[in-house]
Amino acid sequence: MLKQRITPLLCASLLAWLPVAGMAQTDFQLPDMGDPSAAALSPEQDRKLGEAFMREIRRSMKLLEDPEAKDYLQSLGNRLSAYGDDTGQHYNFFIVDEDSINAFAGPGGNIGIHTGLFAATENESELAAVVAHEMAHVSQKHIARQIQRAENLSLPALAALLAAMVVAGKSGNADLGQAALATVTATSAQMQINFTRNNEQEADSVGIQNLSGAGYDPHGMATFFERLQFSSRYYGKPPEFLSTHPVTRDRIAEAQERAQRYDYRQVPDSLTYALVKARLHVLSETDPRSSLRHYQRLIEGGQYRSEAALHYGLALAQGALGDHADARRELDALIAREGEHPMLLSARAHNELEAGNLTDATRLYREALKVYPGNSALTLQYAEALIRAGNAEKARELLRSHSREQPEEPEVYRLLARAHAELGEQARAYQAQAEYYFLSGDVLGAVQQLKVARQKAGNDFYTASSVEARLAELEKIAKEEKEHRRDREP
């Protein structure tokens, strides 16, 4: 039966490939399924698919657009990537704002980590183990391998299969996904896909190797898997991660055996890992008072892995409640003890910004960027402070420069649109807003913004030309997506 042949790895991996169906075949051709040399997508195909994937993700999932947490995850991934066997692969890490314990890899090196997984890890090596595992799915080109095995599978049939996986994954109801799969088999009798667990085993093996090379505890993977399996046995429904990455006793034993091949090391958690966990905890709470009580209780109890993280979480909660003087004292004491960590400097400057002390805030951000030049989180926050302080021109130049380094970061364009608007540069403001909409998954909204930008450009030939060229590109994508939606209608 088809149900028996499609493993959870397929659900996890192919879910990321939904955007394939939104691309016209004339513009995006999958490799010849009968050609063994075409097991991998070309870099250009992978890039286009990855961009479409991220638009789909932003349309359908709630992402946590927190620059500091994202910076940390990107840094952790870059550290692991340096020890991988595909150093030319670009990786983009993002955070899904869900308390479920899950992670997934998609085309273009895009890897998503749920906030619930951060909370579930007990140390940094466990988090790094999951990231390394997902990166191995990308570097070992597992999805392309599975597509190659599906000989004679047409693009429409593949699109239908992907849609079936999305139904199963989003609903959490395997029966719904199975019903969609039945439709696929009815329309494509020749479709035969047979997946094994070799991909998961290979991702474990490569991940552990890179984990050790990057200086993390190679036992982190087996430890995390084992704890998830144990908790699911006693607390009912298993975490989503176990559904998409089946864990057995044999697999845990194999991970332990692989880890033993490397020298044992006791790896302390980085301060950044501890601070990010505290930050995510505060951001996930709808009522800052709850976070305040949480950290006060932990500090009074005297039992914690990182005292600095508790006081950082406390300061964030105090700031969110408007207790800026208390937050200032906490942060000043933390910086005196821990040094000029970028997240502490950022929190100190942000506290002044929210307190309305714009001069102090911009000064603190400027000084922090001297210590950490190019830091993405500090750059974006400094731009925000400059706009609020009435220095939109400096913010505009800062963001223009940063957009060349982070061309796929929506927040850059949101702030750039604000800066242009403050300066009366209406055409540029709408143009930047269009990029924000596009990267956020709203292609039609982006098209509308560019049409307004075209009107506002007037006699500005350079701006009008760039708007017109971009408008043609996005209208083409919008047309392809519309045709895809029409094809799927009953």
Gap from first CA to last CA: 26 Å
Helix content, binned percent: 55-70%
Structural class: mainly alpha
User: How much strand?
Assistant: under 5%
Structure annotation, total helices? 25
The radius of gyration over CA amounts to 24 Å
* Low-pLDDT sequence parts: 1-39, 150-168, 170-195
What is the typical, i.e. mean, pLDDT? Answer: 81
Number of strands: 3
* Shape annotation: globular
- Going across the biggest sheet, name each strand in turn: 1-3-2
H/E element string?
HHHHEEEHHHHHHHHHHHHHHHHHHHHH
- Characterize the biggest β-sheet: 3 strands, mixed
Walk me through the structure.
With 490 residues, the protein is an all-alpha fold. Among the domains are: 2-259, no CATH class; 425-490. The protein is built from 25 helices and three strands. A hairpin with a 4-residue loop joins strand 2 (103-105) and strand 3. Helix 17 (324-338) runs antiparallel to helix 18 and helix 24 runs antiparallel to helix 25. The two termini are 26 Å apart. Residues 1-39, 150-168 and 170-195 have low confidence and may be disordered.
